[in-house]
Amino acid sequence: MVQPVKTISTSLDSAYGEDIVLRQTETTRLVFKPEIVRNPNDEEACVRGTFVFQKKGKLGSWEDQKKSDLRSLTASEGIKLELKAQEVLTLVKNLENYYALYDRHGIVPGEKEFVVFDLEDSPALQAILDNEEYIRKILDRDGGKALPAILKTIAHVDVSQSMLEYLSTLNTDELSNVTSLLDMTKLRKALNVWNDNADKGDESFWQKFFSENPWVISQVFARPVVIMQDQAYVGGKGIEDTGGKMVDFIYRNSLTDNIALVEIKTPKTKLMDGKYRQGVYSVSRELSGAVNQMLAYKDSIQKEFYVLSSKSGTPFCSFNSRCALVVGDTKSLDDKDKKASFELFRAELKDVDIITFDELFAKTELLLQLLHGTENIPEQRDKRVS
Question: Span 241-251, mean pLDDT?
Answer without folding.
Answer: 64
